[in-house]
Amino acid sequence: MVNYYGSITVDYERELAQLDDQGHRPLRTVDTDEPGAVP
User: Fold this and answer.
1) Concatenated DSSP letters of 1-39
2) What CA–CA distance (Å, rounded) separates 1 from 31?
3) Which of 3, 4, 24 has its CA nearest to residue 15?
4) What is the DSSP-derived secondary structure letter of residue 39?
5) Structure confidence by residue, pLDDT tens digits, 12-36
6) Fewest CB atoms within 10 A around its CB: which of 8, 30, 31, 32?
7) How many helices (H) does the chain have, and how many strands (E)?
8) What is the CA radius of gyration of the chain?
């Protein structure tokens, strides 16, 4: 089933800028204040 009601806007330049040298993007960022975070 395909829903044609709505759209998602993606800023490709911003998304590509988040990639590292190997082309991977971290799944989430960890704040250093977060318990269990490794500095």
Assistant:
1) ----S------HHHHHHT--TTS---SS---TTSTT---
2) 39
3) 24
4) -
5) 898 888 888 888 887 776 666 666 6
6) 8
7) 1, 0
8) 16
